[in-house]
Amino acid sequence: MHYYQHHIGDFIKDTSFLTNEEIGIYLKLLWLYYDTEQPLPNSLFELSMKVNARDRQETLSGILSMYFTLQNEEWHHKRCNKEISFYKQQLETASKAGRASAEKRALNRNSTVVERSLDSGSTVVQPTNNQQPITNNHSIEELPTKQRTKGSRLSANFDLPEDWIVFCQTERPDLNPQKVFDSFKDYWIAKSGNQGVKLDWTATWRNWVRNQNVAKPLFNKADVVHQTVPASSFRDPALVKLDEDRMKSAPPNPEVLARIRAVLGKTA
Fold this sequence. Notes:
By secondary structure, the chain is mainly α. The protein is built from eleven helices and three strands.
């Protein structure tokens, strides 16, 4: 395998105490493990040659003991074994889907030959310009060249092919292939006119799956109604406090009031 998931956070945490040179040796050991898809041999000389650490065999031995487990004269790595096992399962699933699809196409091809034999015995030919929808007995590749050029509609009897499931699981493992297919089928069957006619339904399915990650807004911000919260029926606590202080305070002295009136009269 030429690709593996590298979890940076876990790697940094596990190798934070290593020097840059030691990290390089460890990475080369991991790459060798993934490239060969098998445990490493228990030979310091062979491994030191393959990871270019001829003069660092002691360091190489320490890294092997720290991050690998020796079983049956082979150095095993838990994370590598897990990734390789998952990779092989994916290949097996895709291979089974391919074989099932090939068998289905062969069966459909035989059915098409029988149908043509029966049709050739008919004495009445009714020409038509109507496009025939894809059914469970036909795939895009098996349609006549003229019909592939014009395209076709999706039949209500069309079921989810196995290779479509594999593509959805590989491209978007977060999706449910059957639910996505149900919405895909309902949409295109209801599509009227030429917009519902496609030349390659497999490519249409792939684009449909890829576009599932496009988040569509549920509403237009311009349509949002803003409601004003009504004022409270209770008085402001500060005003209540002022009224209470006013009631508690004593009225001004009559002599003081007289002086104030005198001052106001002179000012006027």
